[in-house]
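Hey,
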Amino acid sequence: MFKDLFLKYLQFEKRFSVNTVKSYESDLNQFATFIELGLTKSDIHQIDEKLVRAWVVSMMEKDFSALSINRKLSTLKTFFKFLLREGQIKSNPMDKVTSPKTSKKLPSFIEEKHINGLLDDYSFGDDFSGIRNKTIIEMFYNTGMRLSELIGLTLNSIDLHNGTIKVLGKRNKERILPIHTSFQNSIKKYILARDKEFLALDHHFLFVTDKGNKLYEKFVYRIVNKYLNLVTTIEKKSPHILRHTFATHLLNRGADLNSIKELLGHANLSATQIYTHNTFEKLKTIYKQAHPRA
């Protein structure tokens, strides 16, 4: 079945993560259900742009967001490109399908004074969970790493002598992130608390739950949401907001875009450029407040 070959291609050749491959599989299954065809050799030649457009209309009628629809169309585009490459089809039906327009939404972020207030003035507690929770917030804000990257950190990821952290990002790409002295001290304090709380663990993951197990996404979400609720009213209070905050604050303080791209682990500069819009919005506000003719 072409779908199975395609998913193996994503997993082993493109080296996509398990979750990403599952998303592609889910999109293909939804499309196959809608058109009432499998994705086999006998069916694939019956799929044309009309069927794809009908699926788009169906999703729009069900109030799918343009962003969600475009992600599913991206799955189909990748799938049919794969079939073209394999010589299974002669033309790509996606070439005649137009994606719905999406409105550009600026990434939300937390003001410097608020994040500093949280990390400098709020008492997280001196027990293991308090020290861990603060270190997790600091890790996101000081490095801009993704949730999956934080969960995957091991004790060997940390090089306190050189002041760096090794991160395994998307498509298994490694990058080295610098950490400043005060945050190095926070990590040392956390590791001491971890070793005191758990004398022996059967794994080497850096951050652990209250029972000493590897972290999971919902656990980290709850921690971040709890503490961001103390300092911001923005709707979404997730680990990714701290990543946005990291990038925006660096840009506001003069860091160049290419450096931020490398720190974030973006594959290309276009993904990083969205943060320039936040900076420009801030400049417009300052201009209106400061210029006598504004």
